[in-house]
What we know:
The chain has about 270 residues and is α/β, with parallel strands linked by helices. The protein has one domain: Metal-dependent hydrolases (TIM Barrel, Alpha-Beta Barrel), CATH 3.20.20.140. The chain is built from eight helices and nine strands. It has a seven-stranded parallel beta sheet. The mean pLDDT is about 95. One zinc ion binds next to loops.
Amino acid sequence: MYIADYHTHSNCSIDGSSTMTEMARAAIDAGLDEICITDHVDTIIWNSTKRRGAHDWSQTIAQYRDACDALGDKIKIRLGAEFGETGIHPDLARENMASAPPLDFVIGSVHTAAARNDWADFYYIDSREEAHWYDVIDGYLDEVERLLQIGDFDVLGHLTLPLRYANEHKGMHLSFERFYDRADAIFRRLIETGRGIECNTNRGNTPLPDAPLLRRYRALGGEIITLGSDAHTTDQVGCCIRERQSLLRECGFTHFCTFEARRPIFHTIDI
Ligand SMILES: [Zn+2]
Ligand SMILES: [Zn+2]
């Protein structure tokens, strides 16, 4: 069984706490064959629409070199990035991509509602009102659709992310069901353009997206799929990757992907 965690954050992300070397060591300890570090590259200052300065890749480059020097003979370490909020300042996202070191893998992510909800970051939304959250999800999908048009990425990150904040953080019971048609349209567009999705294991909580949507993506012909824990600390590295590999099999997938130089490598699911 080949185990790869394709969504992890080092302390090159504001909300990460460990170096890439520490994350890679944790991956070895967790029995992983491969880890991809996908630190945030955002266009906005979080919880605002204020434009960030150009991304400084120097720490990423230095830490990646250190990690490969220290542990590259024990585990495959790939360099990725999670590009967030591309739709708010697309020119900055393009600039950051142009100045990036060679990347193996890029996740395209949306963490905010749309303009009509002030681009609110889900993390900071206080409401427990269902109607409000469904409106937020509706706007989130507008932003995902915009990302599909303008973003340079390999897989769409954590589709259904608002559910993490509404259900896990606020104890609500929202379902994505009323948005399945829109999700199908997003899947079709990803498939047509040679891109894929991730199954974010959500550090052991409900996967993003979960089984019904994974089945729909597969039924539409979706093949490109990665598995990532979204670990921000060493103890979360590899969390539930094995379990979600079996979930993928149950949902009709025969393979999952890793990436090298932005090209997918297919691995048989043999569990
Ligand atoms: Zn994210
Ligand atoms: Zn992330």
